[in-house]
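pasting for ref
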Amino acid sequence: GTFHHIAYRILKQYASLIGFGNNFSVLDTDDSESIIKICIKENRPDTTERFPSAGNVLSAISYSRNASRPLAEVIEERYSQWQMFQVEIGRIAAAYETRKKEANAMDFDDLLINLLLLFNDPAVAKKFSTQFQYILVDEYQDTNSIQAAIVNKLASVHKNILVVGDDAQS
């Protein structure tokens, strides 16, 4: 399965170990943007300057999480035109996390991040690294650091990883 599908299936069994109910819901992009819009309304600065759209704020937050880099650093390097809103975007990101947790919901990024968090439990990590004797990752050039860490955790016992990538896309 895909990283997200495998994460979903494992988290449905073990979400309680990381503070979620096993009946958590998964937010699609539209759901996430709707929550971000609410967070923007609650945390938007009083300014005449144009504030980034919910989709753009969500993109910055997502990139930060998937790259395992601080949001402020991501804004500075990739979205420098929004530096004046760095503090507000940070508050919006925190409010977004709170709202998701309160709703027992995860977005697509959370599936991967929470799976990796779950693998910090030695018993869970051992169970799945023992279960997956061989691991094949197709389109490896499209993996991020969190996905690579998940593969490494899953392969920690048998150490049988095969990756396939398209060097024209790397």
